[in-house]
Specification:
Pectate Lyase C-like, 4% helix, globular
């Protein structure tokens, strides 16, 4: 388990890295490339991730509480059961993100997303089949 608490990883190229269970509380990762990085069960509480590229990264069960995620690109990322409580989000790219069963997703993340459709609230797809 890597301990990168308060590390400055701004502009770092961490593509395809294995950072499972990494402790990254308060880390600065502004403009970093986390594409396809494996961050499962990591702790990124209070991390600064402005304009981070995290396409297809695995954030399953990762804590992103109080993280700053302005302009981050999470397209195709796996955020299954991740914790986004009190995260600062504005303008994130979330297309294709897997957030099923994510814990504590701020309402503004869902309600403010361009792909949110209020008319679908409470409905279930046929045979519970969801399109990724």
């Amino acid at each position: 388990m890597a301990d990168l608490t308060s590390a400055d990883l701004s502009d770092a190229d961490l593509r395809n890295s294995d950072l499972e269970e990494a402790l990254m509380r308060g880390a600065r990762m502004n403009d970093a490339n986390l594409g396809s990085t494996y961050l499962k069960r990591g702790d990124l509480t209070d991390a600064q991730m402005t304009s981070v590229l995290a396409q297809d990264a695995n954030f399953e069960r990762t804590t992103l509480a109080q993280a700053i995620l302005h302009g981050a690109n999470f397209s195709g990322a796996d955020m299954y059961r991740s914790d986004l409580q009190s995260a600062e989000l504005s303008g994130p790219e979330l297309s294709g993100v897997r957030i099923k069963r994510a814990g504590r997703i701020p309402a503004r993340l869902v309600l403010g997303n361009a792909q949110y459709r209020p008319e679908m609230q409470g409905s279930r797809p046929p045979r519970d089949i969801y399109v990724p």
